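Practice record 12: protein with guanosine-5'-diphosphate.
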Amino acid sequence: MQSKVDVLLGLQWGDEGKGKIVDFLAPKYNVVARFQGGPNAGHTLEFDGIKHVLHQIPSGIFRNDIINIIGNGVVLDPVIFKKEVEALDKYSIDVRANLFVSKKTQLILPTHRLLDAAYEEAKGKKKIGSTLKGIGPTYQDKVARQGLRVGDILSENFKKKYSKLVERHLEILSHYDTEYNLKAVEEEFFGAIEFLKTFDLIEGEYKINRELSSGAKILAEGAQGSLLDIDFGSYPYVTSSNTTTSGACSGLGVAPNNIGEVYGIFKAYCTRVGGGPFPTELFDEDGERMQKEGNEFGATTGRPRRCGWVDLPALKYTIMINGVTQLFMMKADVLSIFKTIKVCTHYKLPDGTVSDIFPYEIVDQEIEPLYKELPGWNVAIDKIDEFEALPDELKSYIQYLENELKVPINIISLGPDRTQTIMRNGVLA
Ligand code: GDP
Ligand code: IMO
Ligand code: MG
């Protein structure tokens, strides 16, 4: 009874609410697996009045009897991993029984973080706005075929391999004006490596495919968002992994024909943290109100998130790239403060052309968003628990988006808590 992997991923620039929905859906699955990114991610879960932020551990970890896998496509910082696991200690979760790490997962070394900071600093005004967790340099070493992987920590030569790579990093760093005390962080790093050894380090791709063959239901949890994808995002203002559906295949060892549903998750508006283009960004009072009402501050870095209206050309693009089969709309409650809701339907390019294509030139050109206005609902909705009870204006907004995007919106999220979630169409039942 071969099963398929369903994929949940962000359709914008990250922070769409992936953590909340993975936790919400997890009881319908046997396995939750992260397939890319690393501690640049901050996935927030809220239930029983407590807020949790996960960075590398999959968001199924709070549900009983669910296997969580960190896949080969991830870049793992062992120091942050140790802290994350220790933060879970006070809850009655058997982390070691429920969490597995692929031996092919790449390791983030302390010098990767130093390189990240040095490269960013050198970019001056063209900073990416990296989270400085060492993501870019670690993926660089992976592609350069010189990275260290989790499986390497079991080898007797690990320290030797480590020193060889660090030597290369220090040579590069000597060309930058950086100060560091490597000794202090190395001690913590090797302590965390010993800690990581106490976990089940596995052949992730075999585990996942065996689970699939036995009919287990698997949910792949994306990190970042599709517009941060290394190939299809707003390059070079992107992260260093494939955040799109294909990343789930290469990041877990799943064949494309074993992908089932693709859940595309988006905010009822749009945010971005870090540098780079954002056509619908608001620089006025509306943007400030959105940021305040949505509590738009980064879960990993605490940085304020830039805010703007929903962008249909960008959403149509990421739905296409990902093969999205179902949409989930988050944070509709935040828009309750507005009398009018705007939706960007097209872009006007500098030469006067109007288009609904997310253009290659997005980074270098001033693109003017063209808006359609819809009536707002302007009443509190965070306590509503069924679709029928939603205000008509919100139902019209949903219908308008569905008509434009040609994919059903099957979850509507009305607040950060697990319970503030409405399912419709019975598709997920
Ligand atoms: P992720 O990276 O995609 O998991 O998203 P983050 O956790 O970085 O950011 C989403 C933020 O919005 C978190 O603070 C969530 O608690 C919060 N959130 C999620 N869904 C909703 C919602 O429907 N309404 C409101 N008001 N907040 C939400
Ligand atoms: P989650 O999973 C939002 C952004 C950074 C920066 C760019 C590159 O919580 O949605 P990196 O550290 O990867 O080199 O940063 O990508 N970025 C995110 N923005 N949510 C995230 O993750 C992000 N992870 C990276 O702000 O602009
Ligand atoms: Mg986040």
